[in-house]
């Protein structure tokens, strides 16, 4: 992976390599694919995770039909013992929609760098980073946005609309049996993230929905403290300023007073290394801004190529046909400018699609939806 040039000097003198350890945090005693399963019968206490270490675990987010566990991989990079008080706690989560893949290697690369550079083992890592690269393996396996459950002859649920889920430690927990999906997000929110006690800043990594082409953009609620800075550190192509989606990772964190953004990293279902590189670099800028990395200074932000807006204006064709785009993603367009031409089965032009407003062209579909 690429080592950020800004961090190279800080990392050059560090020879120790962080131990990838099974750690001593409370576990169930189960081992899955060589790594222990965290015991989340109570919220995770980060002080139980070894200091100056990168630890790997699984969590059992829910149990499905046939007592089949839904395991999620978790990485935790912990600094010194004192850094739990002096440093920030950052959450990097990805792929809550199973067809959205570009965020997964971002988390992997960041932890690979933290390990290979020796920065965590050095004792100068001032904070904690919790990585959750795959929030929805069920969706990954089904090549689907949502989590599939066999209940009611098959049900798909968007996990990013039902947070924080059911509190497994609440007063009604013994009486209320949660659904698989409520248990799934509840285990992460209340167990791993400790109902925000284990998180000071959160970044939820996404891509566009399947069948859409677009750039990197951030959804950001500028009303919340530090969110504007957080979004601008990403230096995305687009910042969409809005109040968020109820029940999403981003908005739930913001509602609980934790600054968070959603970062969309290009199209779904395929890795785009250029966009992944940009998202990875953003995480290093963020860790520097939070003074998690040693010898950090406030990063300079370049927004010269970033388009900010508060509204998406969509346009749809009035009939089925073959579409040829006449503009590209990130082009500036004027109201009334042609965006695409629609042809019928014989190749005759049947419709010209035009821009309803002046703005920046942010995405288009390449797989037609059936609705």
Automatic annotation (TrEMBL):
InterPro entries: AstE_AspA_cat (IPR055438), N-alpha-Ac-DABA_deacetylase (IPR053138). Residues 1-23 form the signal peptide. The keyword Hydrolase applies. Keywords: Hydrolase, Metal-binding, Signal, Zinc. GO terms for molecular function: hydrolase activity, acting on ester bonds; metal ion binding. Residues 87-288 form the Succinylglutamate desuccinylase/Aspartoacylase catalytic domain. Its cofactor is Zn(2+). Pfam families: AstE_AspA_cat (PF24827). This is Succinylglutamate desuccinylase/Aspartoacylase catalytic domain-containing protein.
């Amino acid at each position: 992976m690429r080592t950020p040039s800004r961090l190279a000097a800080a990392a050059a003198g560090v020879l120790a390599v962080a131990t990838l350890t099974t750690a001593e945090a409370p576990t169930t005693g189960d081992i899955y694919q060589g790594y222990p399963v965290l015991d989340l019968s109570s919220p995770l206490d980060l002080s139980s995770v070894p200091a100056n270490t990168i630890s790997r675990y699984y969590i059992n987010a829910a149990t499905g039909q046939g007592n089949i566990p839904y395991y999620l991989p978790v990485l935790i990079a912990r600094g010194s013992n004192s850094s739990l008080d002096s440093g920030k706690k950052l959450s990097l989560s990805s792929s809550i929609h199973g067809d959205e893949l570009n965020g997964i290697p971002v988390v992997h690369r960041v932890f690979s760098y933290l390990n290979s550079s020796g920065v965590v083992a050095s004792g100068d890592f001032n904070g904690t980073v919790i990585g959750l690269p795959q929030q929805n393996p069920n969706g990954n396996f089904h090549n689907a946005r949502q989590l599939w459950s066999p209940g009611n002859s098959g049900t798909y649920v968007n996990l990013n609309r039902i947070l924080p889920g059911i509190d497994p430690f609440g007063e009604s927990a013994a009486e209320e049996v949660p659904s698989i999906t409520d248990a799934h997000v509840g285990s992460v929110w209340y167990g791993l993230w400790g109902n925000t006690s284990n998180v000071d800043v959160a970044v939820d990594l996404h891509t566009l929905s399947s069948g859409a082409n677009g750039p990197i953009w951030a959804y950001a609620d500028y009303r919340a403290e530090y969110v504007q800075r957080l979004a601008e550190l990403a230096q995305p192509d687009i910042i969409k300023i809005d109040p968020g989606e109820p029940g999403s990772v981003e908005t739930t964190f913001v509602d609980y007073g934790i600054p968070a953004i959603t970062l969309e990293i290009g199209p779904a279902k395929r890795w785009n290394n250029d966009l992944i590189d940009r998202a990875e670099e953003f995480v290093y800028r963020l860790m520097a801004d939070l003074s998690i990395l040693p010898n950090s200074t406030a990063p300079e932000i370049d927004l010269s190529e970033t388009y900010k807006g508060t509204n998406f204006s969509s346009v749809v064709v009035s009939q089925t046909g073959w579409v040829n785009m006449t503009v590209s993603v990130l082009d500036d367009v004027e109201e009334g400018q042609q965006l695409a031409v629609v042809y019928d089965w014989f190749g005759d032009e049947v419709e010209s699609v035009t821009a309803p407003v002046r703005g920046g062209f942010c995405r288009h579909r390449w797989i037609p939806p059936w609705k």
